[in-house]
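Section 3.1: Structural characterization of target chains.
Under the original work plan, the team committed to producing a structural model for every single-chain target entering the pipeline before any wet-lab resources were allocated. The record below documents one such target. The sequence was received from the expression subgroup and is listed exactly as submitted; it comprises 170 residues.
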Amino acid sequence: MSRMTITRAMKELRGRDGLQPAARGRVRREGGGRKPIEESSPAVMKLIKAIVEETTAGDPMSLLRWTSKSTRTIAEELARRAHRMHAVSVGRCLSDLGYSLQANRKTKEGPQHAARDQQFRYINRLVKTYIKTGNPVISVDTKKKELVGEFRNAGRHLAAARPAYRRPRS
C-alpha cells in the first residue's frame, strides 16, 4: 500500500466517528468502484438485445425463447461495434433482459438445406418490414418436431422467459 493510503486510513480511525461497521455488512462506503456498464452506457442494453434478437429462436406463442450465441460471441460483437465489454458483464445484462441458462436438448435431424440460415434471415427482414408498415404478420410452422433416440448434451444455453421480479441492485 502507498504511504498516503495508510495515512488516510489512520486519520479515519482517529476521526470523530472512529471505526463504525458499514451499513448492510459492507466494509467500504457505498458508491465506490466502477459503475456497471448498464448505468454508464444505457445504449448497450439495446445493442445487446439487437444482437441477440437475430439468433433468438423458440415458440413465438410462448414466452420461452433462446439464442445460440454465447456471451463471449456477444462480447466480441459488441467490441466490433465500439462497446468493449467482458462476457461476464454480457451475461449479467442478458439476465436483466430475462435470459437464463438452460440445458441443451440434442435432436437428430435430417440434412439441412444449404441456404437455410439465409432463408430465416430473409423471413426475419420481411417480418420487420411488415411490422414497421403496420401490416399483420402470421407465422405458421407446419413441420412436426420429434426427438429421435436418447441424446443428451450436458451444455447450457441462454433462454429468455417471462421476466421475474428482481430486487433493485444496491
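The chain has a mean pLDDT of 76.
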